[in-house]
Design brief:
The chain has 438 residues and is of the alpha/beta class. Helix content is 34%, strand content 14%. The chain has 15 helices and twelve strands.
């Protein structure tokens, strides 16, 4: 499974506040000795996230500067007008790339920028056992598909939860959702909350379905693990498409237009006509300040996989193969993964990638939007295990455009699930054939 198309989220403000202690990713003292001299180093930092430059300066660059005075940064966000391919052509490739696993397949491999951190991890005595194995498995499997071990390391995690609007449940006299529900349970609630009243069409459920499909709860593959062909016309994918699409086929939902994550979130947080919304924890950052009477429970689970959440989706720091400052770039990675840094991130409302219970326990403690919320929902279910790596010689192509189109075709009643999956597989196979012909 590859992460494709999700709206990116960034580390919350205050991430690094008070994080200048000595605890580090390697578990050793990391302060630079005063007598040690370093030539000045400028690291190029790239992200596809928009409007991130000021936050990057306050949350990362300034704090790194305090710890390593000789390190400075040049920010290379996508909103500066230069995409990664433009930087490569101009000879300005970044040193560090901050993104999800989609960056590995769609960008780094494409431009031969991938770099295996295994040697740096060993050289720095970085303690991988401090990181949650579920997050490490994601990058290990993704890297393994392209012949590597650790092309990146996770720095912040996002977990899927089910949000609900208490006002709408109260308005219609329906009991709130609970942890441990199945999708059948959620559907039964949605049927009671999808109604037309006082000129308003209320919806029982909205969802970030692009994300939910990309990181599906069954661990279903997009591609055959041993051959250059798609594998979406399967019983697993039929169950996934059927389970999620039925919420859009409830009475009075038939007139919905083509859906997108933006429209789904707007219905929940803006128009406030959706009673429940399935999304990642990072979505909270964009909840309006006046939208407060909400809470969350664990994500409903598939009947075939009780107790299993969607695949964990961390964001990674990748060090580029072209970088001339790999050791210094790894110091930044190590610093961001220190206990102190991760503790502050957790307090600020970002799920930690470490397996430290004390850091998990303080999740959202300093984040006003999470005051009084049911934060235990994050850890009720276990994330589904990521797919094992495919042979690095096999072709992988982007999935998102085909997937979103076919799922929308089902939502709009233009195709049944069987037809949509057959066409989805055919379109992927055509893309594979075209890629192999290059």
């Amino acid at each position: 499974m590859w992460l494709v198309g999700p709206l990116p989220f960034v580390l919350a403000a205050g991430l690094l506040a008070g994080c200048m202690g000595n605890s580090s990713g390697s578990g050793k003292e990391q302060a630079v000795p005063k007598e040690e001299k370093h030539d000045p180093v400028t690291l190029r930092f790239y992200t596809g996230d928009k409007d991130y430059e000021q936050r990057f300066k306050a949350e990362i660059a300034d704090k790194v500067k305090q710890k390593y005075p000789y390190i400075s940064f040049e920010f290379q966000g996508a909103d500066t007008g230069k995409q990664i391919q433009d930087l490569v052509v101009a000879g300005e490739s970044p040193d560090i790339y901050y993104q999800g696993t989609s960056a590995l397949d769609n960008q780094l491999i494409k431009f031969d920028l991938q770099y295996d951190m295994a040697d740096l991890i060993k050289k720095d005595n970085f303690d991988l056992s401090r990181l949650d194995p579920s997050y490490l498995d994601i990058i290990k499997n993704a890297s393994g598909t392209f012949g590597g071990t650790y092309f990146g390391l996770p720095v912040v995690a996002f977990t899927t939860v089910l949000y609900y609007n208490k006002d709408l449940f109260d308005k219609f006299g329906v009991s709130y959702p609970k942890d441990g529900m199945t999708w059948d349970d959620a559907y039964n609630l949605a049927t009671r909350l999808t109604r037309y009243e006082d000129g308003v069409q209320y919806r029982g459920m909205t969802m970030n379905f692009t994300y939910l499909l990309d990181n599906n709860q069954l661990g279903a593959d997009y591609f055959d693990p041993k051959a250059d062909r798609a594998a979406v016309n399967s019983d697993q994918w039929k169950s996934i498409f059927t389970t999620l699409s039925r919420f859009y086929k409830l009475p009075m939902n038939a007139k919905l237009d083509k859906r997108s994550r933006v429209k789904e979130v707007q219905a929940f947080t803006g128009d406030r006509i959706s009673a429940m919304h399935a999304d990642v924890t990072g979505a909270i950052d964009n909840f309006p300040d006046d939208f407060t009477n909400w809470d969350m429970v664990s994500m409903p689970t598939m009947k075939e996989a009780p107790g299993i959440n969607f695949q964990a989706n961390p964001r990674f720091y990748y060090i580029m193969n072209s970088s001339k400052h790999k050791d210094d770039a790894f110091k930044v990675v190590d610093f961001v993964l220190s206990d102190d840094m991760q503790m502050a991130a957790s307090k600020a409302g970002k799920a930690t990638v470490l397996n430290n219970p004390a850091i998990r326990k303080v999740y959202g403690q300093d984040y006003a939007k999470l005051k009084g919320k049911h934060i235990e929902a994050l850890y009720v279910s276990k994330p589904v295990k990521p797919s094992p790596p495919r042979d690095s010689k096999l072709v992988t192509v982007p999935v998102a455009p085909h997937q979103n189109d076919e799922f929308n075709n089902v939502l709009l009643g233009l195709k049944d699930v069987n037809t949509a999956l057959r066409d989805f597989e055919e379109s992927l196979n055509k893309s594979i054939a075209a890629e192999k012909a290059k």
